[in-house]
Write a structure and sequence with these properties.
GO terms for molecular function: ATP binding. By secondary structure, the protein is of the alpha/beta class. Helix content is 43%, strand content 15%. Strands 6-5-7-8-4-9 form a 6-stranded parallel β-sheet. The longest helix is centred in the N-terminal third of the chain and has 19 residues, at 51-69.
């Protein structure tokens, strides 16, 4: 007896793009899954009783549908499908996504490391995300914070980072405090604006649901009922990190992101990120997720650049 697992695709244009000319795109999916995929009406079906196969099929079709539903999708349909298929599909990854009300699309992990980070942010109140540029740590922290806010799990988002000066003092930058801190926080706003319409982010800002402040302004506060992101945490001192960690209040989620290989502190000053992850790694309720160059999802050249620097460090040049 034939057992079909069926998914309904409401949008005919999306279904047509998934199938491709003469079902050429379906052939890619069939080759990947190792089973036949059938299109009939507005349905796609796979002939399999294997749970892992049907789960992977659901994950693939859901994700491709999301990609095709976004007007800004880049690349040909075939390239987009191939990119999805190239993502490591495992039970741990295919069960994980970040669904944000009003977002352009659901957010899926691109790698197992990113899936581990999403799961850690769901299960722990304090999460350290360590990794190189482009590994998704800041983007996923912003996505999870927005999910918590817009699903009414918290009442606000607080964004902070250490202001490490590079030839120009914060005090000499033009404007008020908010205008001075904005250039430092821009990467997080870039991430949020790629997840939600700019008008939505502006409205959240105008209603004081998203707050930004230099790390020094956290002293004396208790951060309750909020999602807190400390970005570029490798540039904190141990004293700053201790101060920040002890601000955590009831019903708060704290996401700390940073790259221990890009510390901009003066020589002989230890990074608070490196110090804290060493002494806090055995405390229940705290998760430390280390992403690597294999988790980099920017331009492929970025991954190669990071690997080249890692090779140099290992060889002691």
């Amino acid at each position: 007896m034939v057992s079909l697992y069926t998914i309904i695709i409401p949008q005919s244009e999306v279904l047509h793009r998934i199938c491709g000319t003469n079902d050429s795109n379906l052939s890619l999916i069939e080759n990947f899954l190792g089973v036949s995929v059938f299109a009939r009406g507005n349905e796609l079906s796979v002939n399999s009783e294997d749970k892992e196969t049907t789960e992977n099929f659901r994950f693939i079709i859901d994700r491709i549908s999301d990609e095709f539903s976004v007007n800004e999708s880049t690349g040909t349909d075939r390239e987009i499908i191939q990119s999805v298929l190239n993502t490591e599909v495992s039970g741990k990854i295919s069960d994980v996504s970040v669904s944000i009300p009003g977002a352009f699309k659901r957010i899926y992990p691109e790698t197992k490391g990113q899936a581990d980070l999403i799961l850690a942010m769901r299960s722990s109140d304090l999460v350290f995300a360590l990794g190189p540029a482009g590994s998704g740590k800041t983007y996923l922290a912003a996505a999870e914070a927005l999910r918590l806010l817009l699903c009414h799990k918290v009442s606000s988002i607080v964004i902070t980072r250490p202001v490490v000066e590079a030839g120009e003092s914060l005090g000499y930058l033009p404007g008020d405090l908010q205008e001075k801190i904005n250039p430092y926080i821009k990467p997080l706003y870039d991430a949020m604006n790629s997840i939600l319409p700019r008008e939505t982010i502006k409205k959240l800002n105008d209603n004081n649901l998203i707050e930004t402040a230099p790390l020094a302004y956290m002293r004396g506060r208790t951060l309750k009922n909020c999602a807190v992101i400390l970005d570029e945490a490798q540039n904190t001192t141990p004293e700053q990190m201790k101060m920040f960690l002890t601000r955590m209040g009831e019903n708060s989620k704290v996401f700390i992101t940073g790259d221990p290989t890009q510390v901009d502190l003066p020589p002989r000053i230890q990074s608070g990120l490196v110090h804290s992850t060493k002494i806090l790694n055995n405390i229940k309720g705290i998760s430390i997720v280390e992403l690597t160059s294999t988790d980099v999802v920017r331009n492929p050249l970025v991954k190669q650049i990071i690997q080249a620097y890692e090779n140099e460090e290992r060889q002691g040049f």
